[in-house]
């Protein structure tokens, strides 16, 4: 007796479909699983046998062989419990194999037959839909996640008995037995916009220059670094950046949700990630947790920040090796994990926001308060290498907050996040129109060739930028960064052309890093 069940798995972040072939034959009793699998996948056999028994199915004293195909892909971190159990029941005749036509089965089993959630349900269901499958049987906790994919019926089951009962039911009775899960994607996005955020820029007094820099960074999706003494409000400002970013588009939401699904961080009964991610991590984070990887490759924090913000507080406290690992993702907007069994690529298109003190005590260059030696300051700031600095578009200084900005007598109302977001979205709309028909979305993504096309300068602007380039001894990358930032500033101002005033402001965001890093090198 033979049966074949379609299941699926994820390699890195890429889904693939898998056939679970089950043969129950006369002979010496045994239970073998083959198909190039790791030890933890083989353990599924023991769980399945106990789950079947506790679900009321008696396994005959026969030779049971299970093959996971394709055999050339190593099955690591793969969950095949439910499809194996259903396959055995189908091979024994307890489930009609015809009922499994055009159906994909996913799920982990508890020893009592409970169907538990799995990782990667969303991309696997999307792959199944693309391959023409009509029905997906998923754990109940993953049902809303899978139902985001239109054009495929998603059935959420909480136990092996429920799955068997559904498959054995008449086609007309199935939907009454377990209603297909449906998700109103539009309503999800409407709710996300109406919910808003708990944080708001209106809470922050002073720091007008930093707020302006953050607005520019948000408008063009530029990387930004905020440097200043302790208590200047660097972290407060950084945590509010998502409140001025435009909402996720459905396409971006699907990208982010796929990453969180693979990482097992979607949350129970959650359908989609509808707000831009904000990821913050401690400086003692491991390199694997930061960029991804591991024995069973998983997305790292930089991938979980995809289409959102990666905030590194106290940036120089991170080891230089960890920060240098961000160089390639910052440039390519993805990260490659190489293992002896394959190469995995994870999206990592995040906005880097770094906050740091100018020295270990935090008060340099105020020598009345700072007692750090030049060597200590140089070693502290040296954790952030030149190549990393070159990839940061904007560097802004947060000054010590004046008492007048904190006084309860202050009558000036701070600008709200919603007001700033309106300007950001207008600038984003200009970029969308400019880059229509290309793969570009933001000014920060322009290559040198794109900059030639979209950032043309007049003679006066050309002369000014040439003078700045020679005086500041800029790298080619820094030169292009200035033009990208100037293009964003012009967009915020609603200007078609990049004017000298836009260039001057963009250059100003390159002066701050020179004030600290170049001065320490001299």
Describe this structure in words.
Helices cover 41% and strands 17% of the residues. The protein is an alpha/beta fold. The strands form six sheets. Strands 11-14-17-10-18 form a five-stranded parallel β-sheet. A four-stranded mixed β-sheet has the order 1-2-4-3. A three-stranded parallel β-sheet has the order 5-8-9, sandwiched between helices. Helix 9 (208-220) runs parallel beside helix 19 (417-434). The radius of gyration is 28 Å and the shape is elongated. The protein starts with a strand and ends with a helix.
Which shape, going by the Cα principal axes?
elongated
| Strand line-up across the major sheet | 11-14-17-10-18
Helix content: 40-55%
Biggest β-sheet, characterized? 5 strands, parallel
List keywords for this structure.
about 525 residues; 5-stranded parallel sheet; alpha/beta; single chain; 4-stranded mixed sheet
């Amino acid at each position: 007796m033979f049966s074949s069940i379609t299941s699926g798995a994820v390699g890195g972040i890429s889904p693939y479909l898998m056939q679970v072939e089950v043969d129950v034959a006369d002979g010496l009793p045994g239970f073998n699983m083959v198909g190039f699998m790791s030890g933890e996948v083989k353990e599924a056999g023991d769980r399945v046998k106990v789950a079947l028994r506790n679900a009321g199915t008696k396994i005959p004293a026969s030779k049971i062989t299970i093959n996971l195909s394709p055999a050339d892909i190593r099955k690591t971190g793969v969950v095949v419990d439910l499809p194996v159990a259903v396959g055995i029941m189908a091979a024994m005749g307890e489930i009609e194999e015809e009922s499994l036509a055009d159906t994909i089965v996913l799920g982990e089993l508890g020893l009592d037959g409970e169907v538990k959630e799995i990782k990667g349900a969303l991309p696997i269901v999307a792959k199944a839909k693309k391959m023409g499958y009509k029905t997906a049987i998923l754990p109940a906790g993953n049902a809303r996640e899978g139902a985001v994919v239109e054009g495929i019926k998603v059935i959420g089951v909480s136990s092996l008995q429920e799955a068997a009962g559904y498959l054995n039911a008449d086609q007309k009775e199935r939907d009454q037995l377990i209603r297909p899960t449906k998700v109103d994607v539009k309503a999800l996005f409407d709710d996300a916009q109406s919910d808003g955020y708990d944080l708001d820029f209106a809470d922050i007094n002073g720091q007008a220059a930093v707020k302006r820099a953050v607005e520019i960074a948000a408008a063009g999706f530029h990387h930004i670094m905020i440097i200043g003494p302790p208590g200047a409000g660097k972290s407060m400002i950084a945590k509010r950046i998502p409140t001025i970013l435009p909402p996720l588009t459905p396409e971006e939401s699907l990208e982010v949700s796929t990453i969180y699904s693979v990482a097992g961080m979607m949350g129970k009964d959650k359908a989609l990630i509808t707000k831009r991610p904000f990821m913050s991590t401690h400086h003692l984070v491991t390199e694997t947790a930061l960029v991804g990887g591991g024995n069973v490759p998983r997305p790292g924090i930089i991938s979980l920040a995809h289409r959102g913000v990666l905030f590194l507080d106290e940036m120089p406290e991170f080891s230089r090796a960890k920060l240098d690992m961000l160089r390639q993702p910052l440039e390519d907007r993805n990260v490659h994990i190489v293992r002896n069994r394959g190469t995995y690529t994870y999206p990592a298109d995040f906005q880097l926001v770094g906050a740091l003190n100018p020295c270990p005590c935090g008060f340099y260059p105020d020598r009345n308060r700072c007692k750090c030696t030049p060597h200590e300051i140089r070693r502290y700031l040296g954790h952030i290498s030149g190549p990393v600095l070159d990839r940061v578009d904007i560097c802004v200084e947060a000054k010590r907050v004046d008492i007048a900005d904190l006084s309860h007598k202050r009558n000036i109302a701070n600008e709200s996040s919603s007001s700033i977001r309106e300007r950001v979205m207008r600038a984003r709309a200009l970029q969308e129109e400019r880059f229509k028909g290309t793969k570009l979305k933001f000014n920060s993504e322009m290559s040198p060739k794109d900059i030639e096309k979209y950032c043309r300068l007049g003679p006066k602007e050309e002369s000014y930028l040439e003078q700045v380039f020679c005086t500041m001894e800029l790298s080619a990358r820094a030169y292009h960064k200035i033009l990208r930032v100037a293009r964003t500033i012009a967009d915020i101002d609603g200007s078609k052309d990049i004017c000298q005033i836009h260039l001057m402001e963009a250059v100003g965001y390159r002066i701050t890093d020179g004030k600290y890093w170049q001065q320490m090198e001299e």
